[in-house]
Amino acid sequence: MADTFSGLINYWVAIALMMIGFYIVIAQGNLVKKIVGLNIFQVAVFVFYISMGKVKGGTAPILDDSIEVYSNPLPHVLILTAIVVGVATTALALALIVRINRAYGTIEESEINEQDNVLDASEGKP
Amino acid sequence: MAEQSNMFLILLVIIPLIASPVCVLLRNATAAWAVSMAVAWSVFGIAIKLVNDLSASNQVLYYRIGGWDAPWGIEYALDKVGGLVILVVSIIGALSLVYAKRSVEKEIPPERIYLFYAMLMLCLSGLLGIVITGDAFNLFVFLEISSLSSYVLISLGKDKRALTSAFNYLIMGTIGATFYIIGVGMMYMMTGTLNMADLSTILPAVADSKTVMVALAFLTVGISLKLALFPLHAWLPGAYAFAPSVVTVFLAATATKVSLYVLIRIFFTVFGKVDVFETFPIQPVLLVMALAAMFIASLAAIWQQNIKRMLAYSSIAQIGYMVLGVAIATEAGLTGGIIHIFNHALMKGSLFMAVGAMAYGAGITTVSDMAGMGRRMPLLMAAFVVGGLSLIGVPLTVGFVSKWALVSAALDAQMWPLAALILLSSLLAIIYVWRVVEIAYLKPAPENAPKPSAVPLSMLIPTWVLALASIWFGANATFTMNMAGSAARHLMGGY
Amino acid sequence: MMHQKSVLRVVSKLLIPPILLFALYVQFHGDFGPGGGFQAGVIFAAAFILYGLIFGIANARRTVPASATRTMLALGVLLYAGTGVWTMLLGGEFLDYNYLASTPIAGQHLGILLVELGVGITVAGAMMSIFYTFAAQTLDGDEDIEEEV
After folding, report:
1. pLDDT tens-digit readout, B111-168
2. Rounded to 5, what percent of chain C is helix, strand, coil?
3. Which of A34, A44, B101, B251 has the fewest beta carbons closer than 10 A?
4. Region A2-122: CATH code
5. Where are the domains of chain A?
6. Rounded to an integer, what distance in angstroms lies between the CA atom of residue B341 and that of residue B401?
7. Nearest-CA distance from A23 to chain C in Å?
8. pTM score, two decimals?
9. How confident is the model at residue B282 (pLDDT cuts 50, 70, 90)?
């Protein structure tokens, strides 16, 4: 029992973060908060990958004669790429939000949907 | 595995990738267009050469980046399925660039046009990269390159709803891509490799572990989001309806197809030696989703006012057909799914091009705006009708070839009800296509309608090239059927 | 408003040169120890962002115009991809650094240096243009997004 918790702590953390992030993306109406949620969701995956590469007693993978056990650097490198992709996504999303705010005058999803519905309904009527 | 490396594989990706910053540096709309045009057509040339090489050598083509050998370095690999998909992407890329010049001048502010081409090149590079990479994580990088650039491209639409559509797509797309890397991470935990060929040899040993099962679930859901498979399709109608015309043409004909290719790659290459459909209960799920897409999305299309949104719903239905082919999971079924990738690109490309050109000339956005179009813009409307007939699946069009392949695959696999449902869903396509045709030909144009401005030849020709291609490959399907058939054989035989 | 913040101004003036220097150290020491283009690019951009925060966006834009950041974005990617193409022209595969110099080891050194420099320039350009885009909301914010190779 103790083993399922403490031995797998990294997975529990990743799962918790993922659910928190996912919940925020779905439940929050504010677009900026949605992006925050999306970031937490992505961080969960980063944690998952990084902890996966950890080797007990291993050090950073810098070659030296006195060291025998290294952590696996590959997942870390992969996540560096994923972090950069995440930054690009966040930047783009925030830029879109700025433009949405300028076009709609709000960043609340419900208010945006209202305006969209009015536009949709006006289509096809002369 | 000492095949000779094929330099053209990497050129396919880096030529558009280099073109993108060049466009940014040029800062001039016409120059950026000229560069993109040259790049798109040379990519098309390379794609033809690669497809030729594939059918000549009957082997998988390889390229190893940086000279590192396969499981350690990133490997690019192209087989016949990939060949067909790069052909589709590059044809549509080349034609939509011809189409883009005038269309973009009207729809996008002049100071942003060079950035538009830079993004289009990045998107092209990403889509081609997804197809040719043989590395599961590299695929994620290309997936994000193409997705990020398509979010930007969609947000350039004139209507303010383009912004919210792009934002929704961004949220859904990022969740999809993140699910994909979770799946890849779990596979990496179990196998210690990211190379797809390597994964396929190691996975059978660990296939019955829960981790691999969960990995497959994450991969399937993640890619289905990108693919807009039925319940995960919410981002697609808005994105297609409000993006600039060229972007709609390009994305509708390529992006979802490439995602379907990824799904096929996961099921039949990465899990190729596991026999996914036996080991995991995936077939009934996919079948139900595909059928739901075919019916519900077609029904939704019937009620749409916005004509691009109507075609977008029809795309979701067509994706249903492709997934259906994959879910039948026999050689014939896969052939049907793969050939529909090609055929659907032709018909949806010509339909969206025709609608975009009519929007250019007469400013139509809704179905009722189409009144009198049969007389006012006869050439474009005729192209629309050809595309529409193809959607229905009338003989002598590509749509018929796809549906014939799918129906006969369903019959071969003893799935009689499936064959009947495919035919039944075509009836729905008749309704939504006829609705437009009726208004366009039988209803007179409103009295006060301004005379439509002339549509430039650079928009008319690509539309008709695709429309004629959808008749040509409908009447003479030997080439595409052979190609799809040998691709399916290759997939069923493992990597 | 700037006159009241003399402490901040003096401190940041003192800090900016070491930050830039540290960025260059992280950049060029990257093939011996921890470091590399991503980190260096961000640190490099941080110096300019600090400058922009303290002395105002207008001054920062005068130092590094927005068009220059866009050029940096493009140049970095070109340097990266160009290195790859160069190795192909020299007879190797894409990004096969062994062909860049007379011996493979020297080639690997040169190759990773060039590629990381490309990454560094792009990341610095990207960070600065993101900062400009959001900091200067009065101007028409055009989002140009960047993508690492």
Report:
1. 889 989 999 999 999 999 999 998 999 999 999 999 999 999 999 988 889 999 999 9
2. 75, 0, 25
3. B101
4. 1.10.287.3510
5. 2-122
6. 12
7. 27
8. 0.92
9. confident
